[in-house]
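Blinded run. Sample ID left blank on purpose so nobody reads anything into the name before looking at the predicted structure. Input follows.
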Amino acid sequence: MAADGVRVIVVDEVGIYRHALTTAMSLETAIGSVEPVADAATALRCLGAGSGPQVVLLDMTMADSAGVLNMLVRHAAGVPVIVLAVSESDDEVIACAEAGVAGYVCHGDTFPDLIELISRVCAGESLCSPRVAATILRRVATLAADRRTDPAPVHLTPRENQVLTLVDEGLSNQQIARRLSIEVRTVKNHVHHILEKYQVHRRADAAARFRAARRRPVRAGEAF
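Blinded prediction complete.
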């Protein structure tokens, strides 16, 4: 490995994949060091180290990968996160984009594609497939149309407000239940009611509307 190359963390709970990717990357002259970790907690400790990573790679096939992604992005202090094994489904691509990923490696991409993406990301650029780009552009157009129509304010109960705040932070239903000391079934009911009130099908869409409403000045008689 090159001493002055890119410092990378590989976050993957499957040991054989984690170590195979680490071994392959260690042979690349552009890579300075590779730290394989199995979970978010270890990754966060690496991020807090003195000479931390310059890029984080996260396997999206991990359990609760969406929650792990949001946690890493929030605590990465500007370190770009690249997601691996993205399915290219609209929901997954959009969720990753809204979380703030720097790049995507989809199922059909190759190892050289990954190395090129790391170099691009470190240069402040990105690289994605035409399908991923089209999905993101459609999402941007939808959000722009929503802003122009200025949807009516949504009224949430205090508990729904708490639940949606934690959804926006990237917590899973199980994590929200532990945080609020309620049953997972109760969290699911709250999320269902929230989606109905916002007239959306995805948690990420409700969270985006919630964030936008908090940024917008509240007029008399309105509530979130």
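Unblinding after everyone has recorded impressions. DSSP finds ten helices and five strands in the chain.
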